[in-house]
Write a structure and sequence with these properties.
Structural class: alpha/beta
Distance between the termini: 28 Å
Strand order of the largest sheet: 2-1-3-4
Number of domains: 1
Helix content: 25-40%
Number of helices: 3
Length: 88
């Protein structure tokens, strides 16, 4: 099993990936996407157990990615995050 990380901000994406690799390596390998379409592609190719999704990404949002993942794997665990306080 693997963990999908989808974040359009490169610094946040790199930080989250590094943090998870150091602190929670058992959740790897880590699949990293810089936008929603890439996240959907990775989700279709791999059977990830966990997903960490930015809510606001261009083209396809994290919520749209989650809907697709859940439609195929209803028991998938998904964590959302946002840079915007009004989305919390």
């Amino acid at each position: 099993m693997s963990t999908l990380i989808a974040e359009d901000d490169g610094l946040y994406r790199q930080h989250v990936q590094s943090l998870l690799e150091q602190e929670l390596p058992e959740y790897g390998p880590f699949l990293v996407a810089d936008d929603g379409p890439e996240a959907l592609s990775l989700a279709a190719e791999h059977c990830q157990r966990y997903s960490l999704l930015d809510i606001q990404m261009p083209t396809v949002t994290g919520i749209e990615v989650a809907r697709q993942v859940w439609s195929e794997r209803p028991h998938a665990r998904i964590v959302f995050w946002s840079h915007f306080a009004d989305e919390v």
